[in-house]
Design a protein that fits this description.
By secondary structure, this protein is of the alpha+beta class. It is built from two helices and two strands, in the order ββαα. The protein has a two-stranded antiparallel sheet with strand order 1-2. A hairpin with a 2-residue loop joins β1 and β2. It is elongated, with a radius of gyration of 16 Å.
Length: about 80
């Protein structure tokens, strides 16, 4: 229930029939206009951070997917 908000202006306001907005982010990467990789992750609120870290290791540091997934990851939430 931590995804709901008491703030009435929030899209995640707790209300009958309302569902919290998801951070689900299936991602497709292209390289030179061609499919390079499709990636997604479980993890709730950590999804954007985890995707960014794995993509950084693959694209910027030229690691394999297996090596990128084996790297330590971190997540900071709420201040």
């Amino acid at each position: 229930m931590h995804d709901f908000s008491a703030d009435p202006s929030s899209p995640n306001v707790f209300a009958p029939g309302n569902q919290p907005v998801s951070s689900m982010a299936p991602t497709v990467l292209l390289q030179h206009g061609q499919f390079f990789m499709g990636i997604a992750t479980p993890g709730g609120s950590t999804i954007p951070t985890q995707l960014a870290l794995v993509i950084e290791h693959i694209v910027d540091k030229h690691l394999s997917l297996a090596a990128a997934l084996a790297k330590p990851r971190y997540h900071k939430q709420y201040g």
